[in-house]
Design brief:
Elements (H helix, E strand, L loop, with lengths): L7 H4 E6 L4 E6 L4 E7 L4 E6 L5 E6 L4 E6 L4 E7 L4 E6 L5 E6 L4 E6 L4 E7 L7 E3 L5 E5 L4 E5 L4 E6 L5 E4 L5 E5 L4 E5 L4 E6 L6 E6 L5 E6 L4 E6 L4 E7 L8 E6 L5 E6 L8 E8 L4 E10 L1 E6 L29 H10 L2
Antiparallel strand pairs: 1-2, 1-28, 2-3, 4-5, 5-6, 6-7, 8-9, 9-10, 10-11, 12-13, 13-14, 14-15, 16-17, 17-18, 18-19, 20-21, 21-22, 22-23, 24-25, 25-26, 26-27
Length: 346
């Protein structure tokens, strides 16, 4: 029997509106706002469980995390964490949410079954973004002075990489971490935890970074130049620059990519706009052209998109056309490509 793909799992983008204390829910098929969820004070970032059922939102002013039920778009739990929770990421198995606490210089580990904090990890100064490898073994945290690398089993820091930044994303094969520093983008080899490349983008105020499901492109936001840099991850060179606005009207911050890799969603904080409201720019990743703009709440910042189906964990899931249903970590070319992934995780 072919896998059933929940419609919800591929069609919604969750946008954090820091200035409105809310989350806008965008239907990615129509690019319209279909719901607005009230959360805590000054929400900053958002992450979604792999099964698409829960949405975790950090609330900077409240020192809490709001847990939203994605079916009803209502808050079903509130978790108290450290001071000024900022970034959030969820393990591939969905059992843990990692939250950076920027004032405490810590990382809170939330058990998603009980929605309680089960561990607190000390990291570098002013931690912001967090990303987890696809195998769930390592957690990368950007701070004001370095990148802290955490072993997810022991919840202890096992390495420190000497670059600071505000955003981080890991390639689907787990071999590289891309760090959005305040200027260029640093590329970390996750096997050695050393910087192996530095990409000068030309954009100002580098903020967010996301990588396409096939791992070939990294999209990087620049809030001061209202641009997005598109990096070829094979050569680590900028292959396109997309202008999202002029005269600081947009100030792009967050970025997330749809499970099929065809669209990239960018939050525009709109800090200098007359209305003060934010928006979301939608880019076609084939042409790197803005194809839609969606109005949301004030000071749009974090963004996450409900996940696709996958990855497969055994060969039987690749049979009888079921390989066609997977979108994570990529769309497979054929049954053999799916089986190869199961065998090699690449």
């Amino acid at each position: 029997m072919a896998l059933a793909i929940p419609a919800q799992a591929q069609t919604h983008a969750y946008i954090v509106n820091t200035g409105s204390n809310s989350v806008s829910v965008i239907d990615t098929t129509s690019n319209t706002v279909v719901a607005t969820v009230s959360v805590g004070g000054s929400p900053l970032e958002v992450a979604i469980t792999p099964d698409g059922t829960r949405v975790y939102v950090t609330n900077g002013n409240d020192n809490t995390v709001s847990v939203v039920d994605a079916a009803s778009n209502t808050v079903v739990a509130t978790v108290r964490v450290g001071a000024l929770p900022f970034g959030v990421a969820i393990t591939p198995d969905g059992t843990r949410a990692y939250v950076t606490n920027a004032t405490d210089n810590t990382l809170s580990v939330i058990d998603t079954a009980s929605n309680t904090v089960v561990a607190t990890v000390g990291v570098g100064a002013g931690p912001t973004a967090v990303a987890i490898t696809l195998d769930g073994t390592r957690v990368y945290v950007t701070t004001g002075d370095a990148v802290s690398v955490i072993d997810a089993t022991s919840n202890s820091v096992v390495a420190t990489v000497g670059v600071s930044g505000l955003g981080v994303a890991i390639t689907p094969d787990g071999t590289r971490a891309y760090v959005a520093t305040f200027g260029p983008v640093s590329v970390i080899d996750t096997a050695t935890n050393t910087v192996v490349a530095t990409v000068v983008t030309g954009g100002a105020c580098t903020r967010g970074v996301a990588i396409t499901p096939n791992g070939t492109r990294a999209y990087v936001t620049h809030s001061c130049s209202n641009t997005v840099s598109v990096i070829d991850t094979a050569s680590n060179t900028v292959v396109a620059t997309v202008v999202l606005g002029e005269d600081y009207q947009n100030s792009p911050i967050g970025v997330a990519i749809t499970p099929d890799g065809t669209r990239a969603y960018f939050t525009n904080s709109g800090v200098a706009s007359v209305s003060g409201l934010g928006s979301v720019s939608v880019i076609d990743t084939a042409s790197n052209i803005v194809v839609a703009t969606v109005g949301v709440g004030a000071f749009a910042q974090g963004v996450a998109i409900t996940p696709g189906i996958g990855p497969p964990t055994n060969k039987d899931q690749c049979k009888k056309g079921d390989w066609k249903t997977f979108t994570v970590p990529r769309k497979f070319k054929n049954q053999g490509d799916c089986v190869s992934f199961v065998n090699t995780r690449k």
